[in-house]
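Course assignment 3, question 2. Fill in each field.
Student: A.L.
Task: Predict the tertiary structure for the chain below.
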Amino acid sequence: MGKFKIAIYPGTFDPVTNGHIDIIKRACKIFDKIIVAVADNKDKKTMFDLQKRVEMMKKATSSFEKTEVKSFNTLLVEFAKKENANIIIRGLRAVSDFEYELQMGYANKSLYSEIDTIYLMPNLDNAFISSSVVRSILKYKGDVSHLVPKEILKDLYVHSV
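Answer field:
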């Protein structure tokens, strides 16, 4: 039997979208365990605080046996080492994502030679969804029910009122 494969899917997830869930579903088919790593990035002005983002991700992934949700506030590679993970999963929606993601993948590899980055594309139905699109719609009290997991809808509307 092969080595137990732990992958990390990092992001701010502000908020989690159906696109994120699509990537997690795909990753669950490939890896033994997925750690959904919610970033505490002080440089980003988030709509939801870290605790709320972790809580929403836990709700959204509660039906996935292979997932575990954790927060981190270190370099991603340091978090990966701590979690014994050597795979980072990143989603690519469009070619415009690729240049940034490639640069980050190389930077992570330069910091930790054991880490590899795997890029997954969401289903075409979810390719246009981003957290920033959801936040923009929420700001104007629009309907995001088709863009986010049903498990977090109440959290979104309570916060944006």
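Instructor remarks: Residues 145 and 154 are 10 Å apart (CA to CA). The radius of gyration is 15 Å.
Grade: pending
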